[in-house]
Task: inverse folding
């Protein structure tokens, strides 16, 4: 019964009321994780309805079918009173046919929405489905992904807690083990993380985020600089030997200082010929610096080890790498939930069965009430928090030297609390990345070196020592003259030029 203009008026009214409802929703105080998630889902519902309303209004104003234009002409034409009485008759006929029809104004509908919002403070309200392990969005439930991971070929068998720490370190997995089974594992992990993000952050547009992530991934892939698929790791064949990061070396002479065995291992990792003298091996390996496997001269490959990377294989590897890039972003997005999950698992593992049952009740009540979130823990000495969320004892704090802070300039002036964390960081990715940016190999020579200037000076000294230790044919190559005397190469050539031999 509604005319086009009346429909437009009603949709404009609905749009204004939706804006008002969204403003009120954003102003409500959310005192717990459950309330925040429920509020986001209500906001997403209002936003979807507003977008649908705007699209329908746009279609009506564009008037592709010409109905709006004809209606305006009818009510503005020479017989406007005839059109008025015609519509009045239609309204009367409708009410005669439906005498008990009740009209519900839009204001009543939005009042019902507000009442429903007030009722959602009840603990039983569920706007998103979560498992018991997830505790309504507080924790991750990665048990299924964990079981898939420990059954992958070539992966280290580890506990669930260690998996929570390292499941995003996909760049550490060998290229040979990234097969179809590994891709299925990535698909499963990605689908769960996307589902979890959609449930706890319904207002986030994952499609737009994915486009941005994929654009960055394309740039890194074209530059052959994506983690785990970089320049020196860029082989799609089975390897034996150990890869060598060539970015830290500026000449083949520096490579030669590593010795025959290390160069042979690096050449084998690339399936190149590994015979010849020290200089030949160094030159052969240095010629591959900055090149992809398909750009390397085929004559350098060992017999039967030509690079057979097909376009299909490259596309398959790119697809796996793009999944890794998307998972890296999702894990970063869920960093708080990941840390909370690890703490929760460790806390549960340290308790008995009865204590775990009580803990489940406490977690459930904590997710429904925000009292604990607002409580300020008394911690005047700023001590680290333990597994129970309370400050650790002061004697333990002093015992482990957590009152001592260590600064590492190579790590970007990162501060490490306690000697244990300080010593451990030398083997971690942040310090290794800082050394790689300086063009210095992260070897045992640089243990406890935290200043950039000291590291550069030590690297220069090491290179000088390596050059001094290298075999110098002018002084160390031996020749025998006509009298049977053993002399150096330089002495022999001087005597020969003077005609004394």
Result:
């Amino acid at each position: 019964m509604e005319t086009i203009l009346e429909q437009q008026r009603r949709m404009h009214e609905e749009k204004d009321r939706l804006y008002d409802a969204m403003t009120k929703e954003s102003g409500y105080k959310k005192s717990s994780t459950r309330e925040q998630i429920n509020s986001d889902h209500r906001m997403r519902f209002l936003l979807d309805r507003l977008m649908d309303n705007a699209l329908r209004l746009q279609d009506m104003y564009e008037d592709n079918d010409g109905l709006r234009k004809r209606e305006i002409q009818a009510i503005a034409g020479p017989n406007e009173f005839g059109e008025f009485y015609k519509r009045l008759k239609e309204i009367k006929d409708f009410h005669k046919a439906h005498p008990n029809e009740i009209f519900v104004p839009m204001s009543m509908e939005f009042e019902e929405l507000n009442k429903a919002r007030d009722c959602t403070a009840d603990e039983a309200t569920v706007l998103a489905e979560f498992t018991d392990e997830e505790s309504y969005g507080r924790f991750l439930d990665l048990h299924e992904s964990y079981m898939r991971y420990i059954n992958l070929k070539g992966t280290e068998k580890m506990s669930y807690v260690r998996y929570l720490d390292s499941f995003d370190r996909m760049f550490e997995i060998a290229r040979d083990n990234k097969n179809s089974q590994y891709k299925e594992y990535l698909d499963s992990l990605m689908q769960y993380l996307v589902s979890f993000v959609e449930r706890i952050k319904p207002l986030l547009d994952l499609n737009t985020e994915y486009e941005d992530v994929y654009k960055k991934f394309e740039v890194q892939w074209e530059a052959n600089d994506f983690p785990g698929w970089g320049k020196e790791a860029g082989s799609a064949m089975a390897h034996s030997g150990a890869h060598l990061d060539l970015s830290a070396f500026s000449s083949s002479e520096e490579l030669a200082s590593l010795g025959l065995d290390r160069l042979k291992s690096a050449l084998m990792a690339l399936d190149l010929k590994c015979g010849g003298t020290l200089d030949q091996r160094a030159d052969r390996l240095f010629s591959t610096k900055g090149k992809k496997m398909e750009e390397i001269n085929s004559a350098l490959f060992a017999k039967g080890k030509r690079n057979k990377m097909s376009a299909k294989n490259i596309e398959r590897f790119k697809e796996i790498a793009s999944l890794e890039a998307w998972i890296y972003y999702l894990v970063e997005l869920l960093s708080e939930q990941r840390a909370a999950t690890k703490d929760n698992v460790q806390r549960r593992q340290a308790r008995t069965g009865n204590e775990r049952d009580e803990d489940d009740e406490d977690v459930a009540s904590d997710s429904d009430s925000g009292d604990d979130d607002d409580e300020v823990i008394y911690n005047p000495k700023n001590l680290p928090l333990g597994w129970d969320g309370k400050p650790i004892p002061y004697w333990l704090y002093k015992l482990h030297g957590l009152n001592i802070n260590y600064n590492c300039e190579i790590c970007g002036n990162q501060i490490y609390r306690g000697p244990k964390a300080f010593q451990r960081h030398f083997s971690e990715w942040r310090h290794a990345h800082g050394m790689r940016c300086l063009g210095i190999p992260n070897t045992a020579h640089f243990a406890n070196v935290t200043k950039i200037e000291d590291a550069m000076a030590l690297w220069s000294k090491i290179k000088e020592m390596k050059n001094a230790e290298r075999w110098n044919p002018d002084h160390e190559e031996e020749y025998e003259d006509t009298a049977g005397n053993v002399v150096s190469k330089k002495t022999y050539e001087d005597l020969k030029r003077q005609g004394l031999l």
The beta strands are 405-408, 414-417, 478-480, 486-488. The longest strand covers residues 405-408.
